[in-house]
């Protein structure tokens, strides 16, 4: 009866299967409900406009979806940051109202707004929202 | 008298082989718990426009969603441009801080600007001045 001499060796540890079940369910839950997108926002209507009346409104028109801009007959390219900076430096206090021809996509509009901000414009708005 | 020597290791082997699996699953679990944020899912998947903006979003703002097919959604309900005013006014009345109440527009990057402007005109006609557009940081932003 040496077989029974060490009963401790026969003891089995806790079964891992229920643990794995629970961990898998938790994993699935977190994988499906997690959101890795970091949302940011841009203001489309400058809320401060009502407080101080802008001196002037400069109209910038998006001519095509590829990013051609025009301002008082002069044409600018979206990537032409130096040209846009020069335009804005001539009247930095003005509200820059952006309007677009039909067919321009939201992404292009957002890129134009970004580019104007980079070029130094403080107040950028869409014409549809001007007071 | 070596009978026991063959029985016991075979029983243990079943769980022993699972330990690497459990390690990986635990690591993934911890990653998703720590790195992900649990948030409400949108009614429609949209690809938001990319922007350099770093302004964090206002969590309390009602979100008007415009999907790539130019369909409007508010609180997971499909809605038309004409019906938009009433629920927004209701949300404004229930807002804790009316001063900073804003309305967030979540539009797909491929939505034409006319559609976006029509929605904004409609929101503005309802009397709301603060309108924001939700974006995501661009990958190649410097």
From TrEMBL, chain A:
Residue ranges crossing the lipid bilayer per the database entry: 12-32
Pfam families to which the protein is assigned, alphabetical: ExbD
GO terms, molecular function: transmembrane transporter activity
Keywords, ordered alphabetically: Cell membrane, Membrane, Transmembrane, Transmembrane helix
A GO CC term assigned to this protein in UniProt: plasma membrane
Membrane topology annotation: Single-pass membrane protein
Signal peptide: none
InterPro entries in alphabetical order: ExbD
Localisation: Cell membrane
Name this polypeptide is given: Biopolymer transport protein ExbD/TolR
Biological source species: marine sediment metagenome
TrEMBL record, chain B:
GO cellular component: plasma membrane
Entry's transmembrane regions: 18-36
Keyword presence, Iron: no
Gene3D superfamilies for this protein: 3.30.420.270
Membrane topology: Single-pass membrane protein
InterPro entries: ExbD
GO function terms (MF aspect): transmembrane transporter activity
Entry keywords, A to Z: Cell membrane, Membrane, Transmembrane, Transmembrane helix
Protein's cellular compartments: Cell membrane
UniProt-recorded name of the protein: Biopolymer transport protein ExbD/TolR
Organism: marine sediment metagenome
């Amino acid at each position: 009866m040496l077989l029974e001499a060490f009963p401790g060796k026969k003891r089995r540890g806790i079964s891992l299967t229920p643990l794995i079940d629970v961990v898998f369910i938790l994993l699935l839950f977190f994988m499906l409900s997690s959101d890795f997108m970091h949302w940011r926002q841009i203001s489309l209507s400058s809320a401060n406009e009502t407080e101080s009346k802008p001196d002037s409104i400069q109209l910038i028109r998006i001519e095509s979806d590829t990013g051609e801009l025009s301002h008082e007959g002069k044409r600018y390219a979206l990537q032409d940051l130096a040209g846009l900076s020069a335009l804005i430096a001539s009247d930095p206090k003005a509200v820059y109202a952006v309007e677009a021809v039909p067919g321009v996509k939201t992404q292009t509009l957002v890129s134009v707004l970004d580019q104007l901000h980079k070029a130094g414009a403080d107040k950028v708005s869409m014409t549809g929202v001007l007071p | 008298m070596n009978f026991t020597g063959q029985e016991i290791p075979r029983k243990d082997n079943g769980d022993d082989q699972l330990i690497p699996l459990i390690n990986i699953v635990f690591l993934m679990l911890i990653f998703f718990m720590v790195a992900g944020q649990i948030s409400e899912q949108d009614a429609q998947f949209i690809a938001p426009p990319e922007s350099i903006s770093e302004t964090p979003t206002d969590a309390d703002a009602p979100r008007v969603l415009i999907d790539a097919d130019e369909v409007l959604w508010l609180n997971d309900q499909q809605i038309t441009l004409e019906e938009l005013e009433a629920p927004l006014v209701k949300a404004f009345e229930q807002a804790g801080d009316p001063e900073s109440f804003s309305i967030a527009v979540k539009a797909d990057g491929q939505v034409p600007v006319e559609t976006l402007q029509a929605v904004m005109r409609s929101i503005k006609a309802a009397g709301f001045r603060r309108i924001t557009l939700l974006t995501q940081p661009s990958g190649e932003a410097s």
